[in-house]
Amino acid sequence: MSVASSSTSHALVAPGPLHFRRLRLVQGAAPPPALGGRWVGAGEGALHAALLAPEGAVFDAWIGRAPAEERRHGCVRYATDGDWLHGIAELDDRATGLQAAAHRAYTDLFVVLAAQRCPNLLRLWNYLADINLEAGGSERYRQFNAGRQQAFVEARRSAFEGAPAACALGMRDGALRVYFLAGRRPPLAIENPRQVSAYRYPDRYGPRSPTFSRAALADIGGGRQALFISGTASIVGHATVHAGDVRRQTEESLRNIAAVRQVAAERAGVEILLGELICTVYLRRAADLAVVREVFESAVGADSPAARECIYLQADICRAELLVEIEAHAFVPSGAVA
Ligand code: 3EB
User: Fold this and answer.
1) Taking the alpha carbons of 282, 284, 286, 289 in that order, is the dihedral positive or negative?
2) Minimal CA–CA distance to 52: which of 314, 323, 319, 322?
3) What is the pLDDT of residues 58-70, one digit of tens each?
4) How does pLDDT run across 86-100, given as a tens digit for each residue?
């Protein structure tokens, strides 16, 4: 990878660099020229979840080579620079039910990707209302899992080993929303040795398993690679641990992140520092903010970039006993190992 070649075919030419910025913005400010991203707190199409900290609004921006115009297909809005693609599939699930809406959103998203130069998913962020609600005989998260997995299988996408990194959170209301980031090259899927792979969860967690890997490692051009760590909670093996204890759940989530980081660092051939992670912490109960923040900041270092950059959102986690979930990504130099 460090050896430059003058005779590579066009298909092997390295992509332009992908950049990320977590921007704090005042309400009404124009979004920066990004491929796309996620507004929280306030801003155009912000998540239907309270931003507990920091105050104001945050835009998580994915930035390519040049500003790109927004295009549409079905329920998907997206923009691409030819090397990277960011999009949002958004669909009101009230008329059709959530399983059909998830199936439709993912089917549209896969049609968009199949027609692009960058068909490989790097990361997915799933948001849906009332995630733990029992509706029509099953929990809405399970309905979502059924529709999502069916769309992956029909599109001949990896629904098990090699599934993309993801998260799935419950919003206070609103349509199903799936944010996605894709590139030209497939990332390397990474699992957590402390946890059963989510796509192998036993069926007591639902007839169709969740479709995600614990993390993904991707070359993002410019001599850097990105580690995308999926939503990570207090699950060991496949069991929820520390029910009712938000402090212990936060500590266990951080142990899971440490385990994923360790595997990823071996694969990446470089160190991945905890204090350099860009994290989003989802809390079921706003009142837990102080405890979760204290545990998080003492783990990452109160003066670290991770503590400074972290955002805390109120959201429901996909198992009713879970009180906290942490997702993260990190950027590191490309390793010595090709
Ligand atoms: C878990 O580990 C917690 O359904 O896409 C984390 C990350 C979770 C992604 C998803 C769910 C998802 O099972 C929940």
Assistant:
1) negative
2) 314
3) 999 999 998 789 9
4) 999 999 999 999 999
Can you read off the two tokens belonging to residue 259?
Answer: 């385990």
Q: How far is the CA of 229 from the CAs of 30, 173, 218, 245, in angstroms?
A: 29, 26, 11, 23
Q: Is 229 in the pocket of ligand 1 (CB under 6 A)?
A: no
Cβ of 159 less than 6 Å from ligand 1: no
Active site residue 325: yes
**Helical H runs in the chain?**
98-114, 140-154, 246-268, 289-300, 305-309
Residue of minimum CA distance from atom 3 in ligand 1 = 233
For the four alpha carbons of 176, 204, 235 and 286, in that order, the dihedral sign comes to positive
Amino acid at 59: F
Closest to 81 measured CA to CA, from 163, 10, 19, 8: 19
According to DSSP, the β-strands at 76-80 and 57-63 are unpaired
In this predicted structure, the answer to whether residue 9 has a pLDDT above a threshold of 60 is no
- CB neighbours (10 Å) of residue 247? 15
* pLDDT range class, residue 338, cuts 50, 70, 90: very low
Give pLDDT, residue 68: 85
Catalytic residue from among 90, 252, 309, 325: 325
* 8 or 244, higher pLDDT: 244
Average pLDDT over residues 44-67: 93
Rounded-to-integer distance, Cα 65 and Cα 118, Å: 14
Q: How far is CA 308 from CA 8, 184, 204, 222, 252, in A?
A: 41, 32, 39, 25, 22
Instruction: Give every CB contact of residue 156 below 8 A, 6+ residues apart in sequence.
Output: none
Strand partners, 213: 165
- 215 Cβ below 6 A of ligand 1: no
Count H helices, E strands: the chain?
A: 5, 20
Which pLDDT tens digit goes with each residue over 188-210?
999 999 999 999 999 999 999 99
Q: Is 25:54 a contact under the CB 8 Å cutoff?
A: no
Rounded CA-CA distance 301/261 in Å is 17
